[in-house]
Design a protein that fits this description.
about 220 residues; alpha/beta; Rossmann fold; 5-stranded parallel beta sheet; 8 helices; about 50% helix
Length: about 220
């Protein structure tokens, strides 16, 4: 069992890269804590009910609950998979908790892949994003425009900018990311686990770099 962490700012392309890696590596299990949290809540599992109690009050879900969801996922798999953690951990406290959970399964963090993208590119990617209000299809005003302005190609629904994708909000999200994650980056770099991946170009080029790094492990 290997644990690989995929880090990067909002808009760095973590989800796209993860999906491309999973297509060619069936032994790799994608661990998105956000997705697992929503799934646990929807299914009414004990750890999901814990999380829901915080979410309903508008409070942050504690690290202990998030780590409980991670532990539950590995237990369900029997610890047999290689895991790609997408955007987790986000803080030093979460990193320490993840180390403890992995230790329970005789595993450890094997590599941390940091997707590096210039801030102005991130702002352009996120502020240009548009989402269908009906089916959730994602577009971009420059890179993936709709055929008809404001109309979803898939279902004909209205396509609009999400409130948290306006430029001012995007820059604030990036500032929060830097404050939270810079200590984490230094932590993994100091352990010799962190690899910088240039991710400003095409996703295929980013994935090629990652595969090269993983093959060398």
């Amino acid at each position: 069992m290997r644990a690989i962490l995929l880090l990067g700012a909002p808009g760095a392309g973590k989800g796209t890269v993860a999906a491309m890696l999973l297509k060619t590596d069936p032994a790799l299990a994608h661990v998105s804590t956000g997705d697992m949290l929503r799934e646990a809540v929807k299914e009414g599992r004990p750890v999901g009910l814990q999380a829901k109690s915080y979410m309903e009050k508008g409070e942050l879900v504690p690290d202990s609950v998030i780590l409980g969801i991670v532990r539950e996922r590995i237990e369900r798999d029997g610890g047999r998979s290689d895991y790609l953690f997408d955007g987790f951990p986000r803080t030093l406290q979460q990193a320490g908790g993840l180390d403890e959970v992995l230790k329970e399964f005789g595993a450890r963090v094997n590599a941390v892949l940091l997707l590096e993208v210039p801030e102005e590119t991130l702002v352009s990617r996120l502020s240009g994003r548009r989402v269908c209000r009906v089916c959730g299809a994602v577009y971009h005003v420059a890179n993936i425009p709709t055929k008809k302005p404001g109309i979803c190609d898939r279902c004909g629904g209205e396509v609009a900018q999400r409130p948290d994708d306006n430029e001012a909000t995007v820059r604030n999200r990036l500032a929060v990311y830097r404050r939270q994650t810079e200590p984490l980056i230094a932590h993994y770099r100091g352990r010799g686990l962190l690899f910088d991946i240039a991710a400003a170009g095409a996703p295929e080029a980013t994935v090629a770099q990652i595969r090269e790094r993983l093959a060398a492990l």
